């Protein structure tokens, strides 16, 4: 073929596409010293084959991490909610429910802490990459000196896969020119299939999907995003197990659900028709009673005051109730559909006799439920209308909620309800409603009896827990980078002993300038610049979480010395973990990122 100017251009594009698709950091595989003997002839030569690539220990379990997006503590039936999640129930009933597990208040910081086992600011994700700030706690570039779980397990002989939402690549790197070293395939994942790796949300019916480092064609069948990532995960697992049944894999399954837009087929939405007609005040009371019966809250837990700005259900007009009910039906259908897709993976592992040798960690939330829908929720894409015009417009589209033509987000009243029994929402880093989520650990090889664990834990604890339970080792050097220790603490100690004293006794929380610190059961809260805050930013709060599960009794005036003590503790933690300077703005301060904006919240 003659390389005309046009052909050269096409050849260059094809070459670049190949390069983009193939850029993957290899396992550490140096050439070992030869231990045989070289002779002039074969007869005089003694052969010796060295181990080229890491080999997993015999019997090493598969690992599946499941991270659900934007969901409250009181949503799933696995933790007393009214949204049916039979797969979560199944795993919890054969495993352990952790009722005192915490995340960051937003998506990306939680994911950075999860994948590295470190506090968010330690690994430069005190906020989002596209709202970066030029200091170590906020620049949005995940350091190689803190390996991801994928990098660690790959060095222990695992195949590693990620599907769904990643949200940890700087937008400035998401171009055909890269660099690609901080894409998922550059951070230890053999294969990736999901949203643009800098994106925090996407359309479920028309998603922008990347395969490894290149844009994937639109699905010709128009299938739902959660179904697509599940299909891909099943393909990865089946392909690997057919080639080597004994080799373990790590799957990071992070669907877009239940982040807005709340899109799912009508059959899933209609399953919930009439199920929530009594409203969000009734929902809170009903769920708290179920939570007590299930044992995921103490028996003396009381409902906190309703979040400011949430109207009593009975005060709503019939039209507002009608629209609000269809919103929660869509959200519930979205969550149940996600649970169903996860069930396909669990069922397949059982079918191929791998389930009993699989560690499954289910994290039902990367933060609390979101109040972004406001008073009446949202159906159609936001436009400049008066509030009444917007409501009328949305009401006229009620029958299409969940379809590709709509961008549904439920009203804040349902966010408050599904966060039962906690106060406030996603984006609030100091209250439990923004940071406490359900955790399930399923591992038949180790967990012989189901149960509940109440020890304090944080998202950074999942990596060291996984390392300990799999028997993996963290190499001192990965891909040429000397490794620094993780901040998290393994939860393995609590598996066999429900009454074991908690080991994660100190943890700070900070986001957008507001902060809190937990120490030995006490928690001090310091509001500063909480987005959509309702509380007085000049007020400090003090709670004894051992006696006050959901932060109702403010003890700051009774124990002012404890507030001062915990303020000093936060200062120490803040300097230690790159929290300063407090970044209390949402604006992007990095000019290099302005050209590549993406949805993150």
TrEMBL record:
Residues 1-26 form the signal peptide. Residues 61-472 form the Sulfatase N-terminal domain. Coiled coil: none annotated. InterPro entries: Alkaline_phosphatase_core_sf, Sulfatase, Sulfatase_CS, Sulfatase_N. One of its GO terms (molecular function) is hydrolase activity. Keywords: Calcium, Hydrolase, Metal-binding, Signal. The keyword Calcium applies. CDD domains: PAS_like. Belongs to the sulfatase family. PANTHER family: ARYLSULFATASE FAMILY MEMBER, BLL2667 PROTEIN. This is Arylsulfatase. It comes from Sphingobacterium corticibacterium.
């Amino acid at each position: 073929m003659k390389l005309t100017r046009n052909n050269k251009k096409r050849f260059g594009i094809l070459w670049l596409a190949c390069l983009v698709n193939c850029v993957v950091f290899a396992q550490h595989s140096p050439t070992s010293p030869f231990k045989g003997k070289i002779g002039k002839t074969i007869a005089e030569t003694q052969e010796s084959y060295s181990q080229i690539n890491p080999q997993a220990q015999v019997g090493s379990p598969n690992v599946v991490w499941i991270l659900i997006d934007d969901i409250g503590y009181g949503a799933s039936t696995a933790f007393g909610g009214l949204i049916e999640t039979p797969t979560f129930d199944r795993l919890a009933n054969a495993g352990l429910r952790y009722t005192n597990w915490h995340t960051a208040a937003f998506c990306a910081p939680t994911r950075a802490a999860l994948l590295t086992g470190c506090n968010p600011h330690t690994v430069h994700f005190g906020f989002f990459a596209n709202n970066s700030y030029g200091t170590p706690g906020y620049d949005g570039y995940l350091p190689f000196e803190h390996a991801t779980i994928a990098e660690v397990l790959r060095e222990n002989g695992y195949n590693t896969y990620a599907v769904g939402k990643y949200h940890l690549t700087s937008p400035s790197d998401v171009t055909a020119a890269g660099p690609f070293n901080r894409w998922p395939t550059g951070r230890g994942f053999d294969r990736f299939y999901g949203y643009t790796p800098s994106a925090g949300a996407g359309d479920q019916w028309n998603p922008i999907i990347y395969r490894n480092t290149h844009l994937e064609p639109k699905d010709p069948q128009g299938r739902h995003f959660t179904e697509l990532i599940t299909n891909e995960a099943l393909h990865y697992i089946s392909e690997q197990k057919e080639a080597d049944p004994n080799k373990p894999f790590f799957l990071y399954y992070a669907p877009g659900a239940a982040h807005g837009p709340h899109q799912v087929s009508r059959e899933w939405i209609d399953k919930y028709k009439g199920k929530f007609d009594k409203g969000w005040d009734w929902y809170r009371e009903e769920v708290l009673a179920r939570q007590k019966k299930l044992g995921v809250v103490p028996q003396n837990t009381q409902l906190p005051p309703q979040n400011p700005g949430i109207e009593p259900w009975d005060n709503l007009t019939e039209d507002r109730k009608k629209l609000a009910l269809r919103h929660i039906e869509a959200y519930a259908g979205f969550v149940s559909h996600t649970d169903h897709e996860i069930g396909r993976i669990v069922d397949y592992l059982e079918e191929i006799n791998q389930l009993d040798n699989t560690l499954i960690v289910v994290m039902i939330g990367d933060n609390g439920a979101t109040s972004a829908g406001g008073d009446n929720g949202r159906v159609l894409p936001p436009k400049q209308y008066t509030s009444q015009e917007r409501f009328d417009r949305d009401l006229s589209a009620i029958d299409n909620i969940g379809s590709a033509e709509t961008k549904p987000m439920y009203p804040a009243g349902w966010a408050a309800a599904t966060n039962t029994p906690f106060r406030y929402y996603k984006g609030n880093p100091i209250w439990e409603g923004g940071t406490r989520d359900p955790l399930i650990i399923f591992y038949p090889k180790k967990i012989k009896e189901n149960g509940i664990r109440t020890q304090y834990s944080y998202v950074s604890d999942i990596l060291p827990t996984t390392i300990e339970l799999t028997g993996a080792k963290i190499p001192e050097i990965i891909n040429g980078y000397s490794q620094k220790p993780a901040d998290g603490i393994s939860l393995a100690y609590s598996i066999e002993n429900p009454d074991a004293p908690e080991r994660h006794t100190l943890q700070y929380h900070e986001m957008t300038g507001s902060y809190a610190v937990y120490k030995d059961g006490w928690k001090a809260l310091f509001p500063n610049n909480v987005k959509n805050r309702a509380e007085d930013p000049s007020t400090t709060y003090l709670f004894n979480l051992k006696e006050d599960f959901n932060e109702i009794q403010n003890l700051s005036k009774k124990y002012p010395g404890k507030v001062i003590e915990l303020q000093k503790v936060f200062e120490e933690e803040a300097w230690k973990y790159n929290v300063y300077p407090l970044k209390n703005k949402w604006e992007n301060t990095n000019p290099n990122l302005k050209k590549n904006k993406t949805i993150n919240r």
